[in-house]
Amino acid sequence: MTTRRTGWIVGALAVALVLSMLAPGAVLVLAVPVAVVGSILTRRRPRGHEDRDVAERLLAAAATLTGERTSSDGEQVDWGAALRAELATITVPRERRRFAVGAAVALLGRPHSRRSFVVAAGVAVAFGAGVLGVSRAGLGDDGLGSVTMLLPPVMLFAVGYLCARSTRSLRFGLETGVVAAVTTLGAVAVVYGVEAARWYHLAPDVSVLDGDHVAFASTRAAVLGAVHPVILLVHLVFWSPWPVLGAWAGREHRRPATG
Amino acid sequence: MRRSRKPTPQTIAVVLALADNPSGWSHGYELCRQLGLKAGTVYPILMRLAERGQVETAWETDPPSGRPARHLYRLAGEGTRFAEELRAAAAAELPHASRSGGVIRPALGEPF
């Protein structure tokens, strides 16, 4: 067993231990992405990476963040590979560095923003509608917090993973996953606000977040309590690693296993 | 019609450089050196031209041992027509250039 693999297992166990103290139900849900990422990242990697100079490392990093582009005839062009092959023909170190900087700029220069926003908006609308449905169906008597805290990590991991895997672009997975996290937070805030007002009229002393008894003075106070910036920030902090891990895992999953 | 904006001098330079080599393939780094442009300028242009179908790309089929196959570029049919349009436009603006038979090159103003 490699040191790296051992590190992942210890890390996953530590996460599971902390989560088991905070929320036992979260262990299973959140340990799965950690296990997936760990198993992918601890696969054997090609030899020879240690011989790469700064230029090659820079270009390799930029190429990792980008995927293939489609030419007009539908052919997929791997520009990262094209630029790295070109770099391999340049022998003067200064020229290599200059070429690598320019090539990295070329690779990173054009975002996939429109597609990312479309996917992220779809994810946010679907999740918001789901949370609203849970609340209206009376399934959220214990508050909506457990749904909005625990499901998005899995969902955002899946978004990052699928986007990175389908396009072979870590960058697209990251962009889409992170934007999806932000738009989903917006959807959660809207649903919390709407449902806090509704719950206040049905049961004025029940928190929409966790179903606990909280004495709100008015509808406005109930809404502001539900969409308090600290609550939203905690959500975002809790969610934020998962789209990044998902995108990374999706990118790694497309690489052929070597060794 | 995709070309809604006037091409930049750098785009014109890349297209004309590829047009000067109509039968063979060019390498990206060669174009950078030939035109005195940075890779960060030339490659986005090549990417855009390839996406528009004006440039066709291929991988070197028989690279020397010890280095990977390079990516090659040449004008496709639509790119050749684009180059002819650019030449005609440049000749109309600078009639003396075409009369002298010289190669028309835009002023790039960007040292390598």
Topology (elements, then pairings):
The complex is a heterodimer of chains A (259) and B (112).
Chain A: H1 3-22, H2 24-41, H3 54-65, E1 69-70, E2 76-77, H4 79-87, H5 93-108, H6 113-136, H7 145-167, H8 170-202, H9 219-226, H10 229-239, H11 241-254
Antiparallel strand pairs in A: 1-2
Helix pairs in contact in A: 1-2, 2-7, 2-11, 3-4, 3-5, 4-5, 6-8, 7-8, 7-11, 8-9, 8-10, 8-11
Chain B: H1 9-19, E1 26-27, H2 28-35, H3 39-51, E2 55-59, E3 71-75, H4 77-93, H5 95-99
Antiparallel strand pairs in B: 1-3, 2-3
Structural overview:
The complex is a heterodimer of chains A (259) and B (112). Chain A starts with a helix and ends in a 5-residue tail after the last helix. Chain A is an all-alpha fold and 259 residues long. Chain A has a two-stranded antiparallel sheet with strand order 1-2. Helix content of chain A is 73%, strand content 2%. Chain A is built from eleven helices and two strands, in the order H-H-H-E-E-H-H-H-H-H-H-H-H. Chain A folds into three domains: 1-42; 49-108, no CATH class; 111-254, no CATH class. In chain A, 36% of the residues are buried. Chain B is mostly helical. Chain B has a single domain, classed as Orthogonal Bundle (Arc Repressor Mutant, subunit A). Chain B is 48% helix and 11% strand. Chain B has a three-stranded antiparallel β-sheet with strand order 1-3-2. Chain B starts with 8 loop residues before the first helix and ends in a 13-residue tail after the last helix. Mean pLDDT of chain B is 80; it is low at 97-104. At the A-B interface, strand 1, helix 4 and helix 5 of A face helix 2 and helix 3 of B.
